[in-house]
Amino acid sequence: MIDVHCHILSNIDDGASDFDESLEMAKIAAQDGIRQIIATPHVYDDKYAIGDIIKQVDHLNRLLKQHNIPVQIYPGAEVSISLDPAMIPKYTLNHTKYTLIEFPHNHLPSFAGKILAWLIAKDLKPIIAHPERNYSIIRSPELLLNLLNNNIYVQITAGSLTGDFGGDIQYCADYLLNSGKVDFIASDAHSKKFRTPVLAEAADIAATHLGKKASQRLVSTNPAAILAGEAIH
């Protein structure tokens, strides 16, 4: 499996506290069957350039090799929709056209559609991170569905499907999954104890809704397309 949203880099946001924790998170991921992870630290401003993220990824990959942990890390970011739009194209997933976009948790901005359209006009492929955890979308999932088209993708959190965030978020995740609009399940892991990098249980739940083949698309096939910069079917 491939995790396309994970805060495994250390001392860069609210994810891993140090490289030791990064290694522990990678061990957890490997035990769960994850072999590739896109590191997606939060980007709200220009504090960290993509070059800083790449350096951290390279260093972590060297440590993983030294410790014989069978996980490969790739560079990326979780970009706030409030970031200057001109900066967003700098922070894509593994140097592709795919970019992971985060809305505020407490509301859906009125300009969300305009920003997504602007990104598409710039030949980017926006992925909306964990919309099932957005308060406005929990109340009215059609707000998200009305934003979507063939150039906009949806990633939900594994813990949302397993009930880790409560019943309302789990219901919204199930609703979006059954609507056929979900393209990825990712861990959005932040530590070795809280929201850990695991996907297997959520993939099994998705399989009960969609079937095993469709579930594997969300944790393997579609994420592999991101890494390769290929189209998602």
How would you characterize the overall build of this protein?
With 233 residues, the chain is of the alpha/beta class. The chain has a single domain (2-228), classed as TIM Barrel, CATH 3.20.20.140. The chain is 40% helix and 15% strand. The chain contains 9 helices and 9 strands. It has helices at residues 19-32, 50-66, 112-121, 135-139, 142-145, 158-161, 167-178, 200-210, 212-228; strands at 2-6, 36-39, 42-43, 72-75, 78-80, 98-102, 125-129, 153-157, 184-186. The strands form 2 sheets. Strands 3-5-6-7-8-9 form a 6-stranded parallel sheet. Strands 1-2-4 form a 3-stranded parallel sheet.
Please give a handful of descriptors for the protein shown.
globular; alpha/beta; three-stranded parallel beta sheet; 233 residues; TIM Barrel; six-stranded parallel beta sheet; 9 helices; single chain
Largest sheet: 6 strands, parallel
The shape is globular
Structural class: alpha/beta
Query: What is the overall number of helices?
Result: 9
Which series of helices and strands comes N to C? EHEEHEEEHEHHEHHEHH
Any idea what the radius of gyration is? 16 Å
Q: Any idea of the CATH class?
A: Alpha Beta
What is the count of distinct domains?
1
User: In percent terms, what proportion of residues is strand?
Assistant: 15-25%
Q: What is the fold named in CATH at topology level?
A: TIM Barrel
Low-confidence stretches: none
State the end-to-end distance: 18 Å
- What is the name of the CATH superfamily? Metal-dependent hydrolases
The percent of residues in helical segments reads 40-55%
Side by side, the strands of the main sheet go 3-5-6-7-8-9
Q: Number of DSSP strands?
A: 9
CATH architecture classification name: Alpha-Beta Barrel
Mean pLDDT over the residues: 96
